[in-house]
From TrEMBL:
Residues 48-299 form the Periplasmic binding protein domain. Its main location: other. PROSITE patterns: PROKAR_LIPOPROTEIN (PS51257). Residues 1-19 form the signal peptide. InterPro entries: Peripla_BP_I, SBP_2_dom. This is Sugar ABC transporter substrate-binding protein. Belongs to the bacterial solute-binding protein 2 family.
Length: 330
């Protein structure tokens, strides 16, 4: 009799175990489905694509993004082509990132128009795209643009130079890579500021954001225009190259750049470079990720966020230097 009772009990226990296993399998499947667009641990997945990572300006942006990854619990990565001129390489990176199904993209586009076809695919898939530093003005479907008013940056640099000159003095302008939005808008602002101050623009020439090229370009400018009294450069790398060329000629003329990288601020502090209009790339990277997370959650995000400017001169260079080094952990 006892044996007859034992068999049904054993069968009931077997069915119970099988049911439990089935329940666990169903729960596991449900968890996987819920994280299809996030990382495997449930964190929101954000990809940040920059123009490059070698120059210090971009290192600040990377540092800001990584600080936000850590603070907000984001599964994020920062990638970039080998240099700013590799437009197609960056476009391919954006395409590859799309195939990896991020929850949001934070992008600093090298050439906005080249990136548009891929960015439209992000829109079709419902993935928010936030632009930092460089806008894509003709694309209305971006979630937000976070960065400097580049026209204002160029204008401020021109005003800084103008205070050291007399009306009618000649000024040289060093442009970034031709066709890039940041260069064109900064140069437009610089030309407006110089013209308003009654200064003559002797020449405006591209040096591709590069210090070495800027030295060579500036040497040629000084050869053709020896009466140039100042230089406005669209970034600090070119400004430092221009200083090298002017010093080689034994000239001491005001040179102003844009970006506020550590080496430029050190040069300002030493009285070599006259000034820099500092952007806030660390803040751009940080705010890009922070607002991407808000967009993922369906929270409202401002369409334009101005990350601000600082004017760096000899008077405030030392304090600015300490702040910048702290952000890079130096």
């Amino acid at each position: 009799m006892k044996k007859r009772i034992a068999i049904p009990l054993i069968l009931m226990m077997m069915f119970s175990v099988l049911a439990g296993c089935a329940g666990q399998a169903n729960n596991s499947t449900g968890a996987t489905a819920g994280n299809q667009q996030g990382s495997s641990d449930g964190k929101p997945k954000v990809t940040v694509v920059l123009m490059e990572l070698s120059a210090q300006y971009f290192k600040f942006m990377e540092a800001g993004a990584k600080a936000a990854f850590q603070e907000f619990g984001v599964d994020g990565k920062v990638i970039a082509p080998s240099n700013q001129s590799q437009v197609i390489e960056q476009v391919n990176m954006i395409e590859t990132a799309l195939n990896e199904k991020p929850d949001a993209l934070v992008l600093m586009p090298s050439q906005p128009e080249s990136a548009l076809p891929v960015l439209r695919k992000y829109k079709q898939k419902g993935i928010p795209v936030l632009l930092i530093d460089t806008d894509v003005p003709n694309w209305k479907d971006k979630t937000s643009y976070i960065g400097t008013n580049n026209d204002e940056a160029g204008y401020t640099a021109a005003q800084l130079v103008a205070k050291q000159l007399n009306k009618g003095d000649k000024v040289a302008i060093l442009e970034g890579i031709a066709g890039t939005y940041a260069s064109e808008t900064r140069i437009a602002g610089a030309k407006r500021g110089l013209t308003e101050a009654g200064l003559e623009i002797a020449v405006s020439q591209s040096a591709d954001w590069d210090r070495v090229k800027a030295t060579s370009v500036m040497e040629n400018i000084l050869q053709a225009h020896p009466d140039v009294k100042a230089v406005v450069a669209a970034n600090d790398e070119m400004a430092l190259g221009a200083v090298r060329a002017t010093e080689a000629k034994g000239l001491k003329i005001p040179v102003v750049g844009v970006d506020g990288i550590i080496e430029a601020v050190e040069s300002v502090n030493k009285g070599i470079l006259f000034g820099s209009v500092a952007q806030k790339p660390y803040d751009m990277g940080y705010l890009g990720v922070k607002n991407a997370l808000a967009a993922i959650k369906g929270e409202p995000v401002e369409q334009r966020i101005d990350s601000g400017l600082d004017t760096i001169t000899k008077e405030n260079a030392e304090a600015k230097l300490k702040d910048l080094k702290a952000k890079l952990g130096q």
